[in-house]
Design a protein that fits this description.
Layout: E1 20-23, E2 31-35, E3 43-49, H1 67-73, E4 77-81, H2 91-107, H3 109-112, E5 114-124, H4 126-136, H5 139-143, E6 153-157, H6 164-169, H7 172-183, H8 187-192, H9 195-198, E7 206-213, H10 215-230, E8 234-243, H11 244-254, H12 262-274
């Protein structure tokens, strides 16, 4: 992911103060970075899941650098999560890791200064798929001792694999291998890992789907939103400028910068979801 510093006229992208790094499992990739506003005892939690095609990336190099400081400015705790990667682990393992990381934080909420009753999951690209899956297929949360009642909202950021079979059918040569490595060739498994197919109720209570102008991303976000609405789940869509992979990287890199168009949309939605 593109991680350049802000250019002239832009505020430099900063992670803010150094985070706590915590292990939520025994694997070296089962770790997270946590920022909590100083002096706060019950900060709402925004948990971020990085992208990287399910096979690369980390909580450090695939996260927009503006987000931690921006979340702290809003009075929110912010966690950036690592998870086990394909091919050594499966997408099912990754969704389980997201749920396990959340369970780890909520179990220690009082000590960490987190309000366990106000939680939003977000993620970019493959991370958007993972948080959408955890927000529509409750099995991952239940395995971790949680449920949809423990999540107030989900904000997938520019994902394009919510209907995995449809995405794989039009992926083209550039991405076909990545999708097959992650989701295999079995149609039943592909559907089982598709948030759109799980979007019949119940789901997490509220979704904000944000995306740039990629043809597959627009189609996938529209279809997921329609499925969520049919289930009676509150859902909003934010469509923002940015073409192709450049736009895909930019919405991750710039989200949280005050002059980036998606930032005030995110902020307003978080305030509504958190009841702030």
């Amino acid at each position: 992911m593109e991680q350049r510093r802000g250019g002239p006229g832009q505020r430099a992208e900063q992670q803010g103060p150094a985070p706590q790094t915590l292990a939520y499992g025994s694997d070296s990739l089962q770790a997270l970075d946590l920022w909590v506003p100083a002096g706060t005892k019950n900060a709402p939690l925004v948990l971020f899941v990085h992208g990287g095609g399910w096979k690369r990336g980390s909580k450090s190099n695939a996260m927009g650098r503006a987000m931690p400081a921006h979340m702290l400015e809003q009075g929110y705790a912010f966690a950036s999560v690592d998870y086990r990667l394909v091919p050594h682990s499966t997408v099912e393992d990754q969704a389980a890791d997201v749920a396990a990381a959340l369970a780890f934080l909520l179990a220690r909420a009082d000590d960490l200064g987190i309000d366990r009753t106000r939680v939003v999951l977000t993620g970019h690209s493959a991370g958007a798929h993972l948080v959408a899956l955890v927000g529509t297929d409750e099995r991952y949360l239940k395995t971790a001792g949680l449920s949809f009642a423990d999540i107030d909202g989900v904000m997938p950021n520019d994902g394009a694999a919510y209907d995995v079979p449809a995405q794989m059918a039009q992926a083209g040569r550039f991405m076909a291998g990545t999708y097959e490595q992650a989701f295999g060739t079995d149609l039943a498994r592909q559907r089982a890992l598709s948030p759109t197919f799980h979007a019949a109720a119940p789901n997490a209570p509220a979704f904000l789907l944000i995306h740039v102008q990629r043809k597959d991303g627009i189609a996938q976000n529209t279809a997921l939103a329609e499925a969520l609405r049919r289930a009676g789940t509150a859902v909003e869509i934010g469509s923002f400028p940015g073409d192709g992979l450049k736009g895909h990287a930019e919405i991750n890199r710039k989200l949280g910068q005050p002059d980036y168009p998606a930032t005030p949309v995110m902020d307003a939605w978080l305030k509504t979801v958190f009841g702030a």
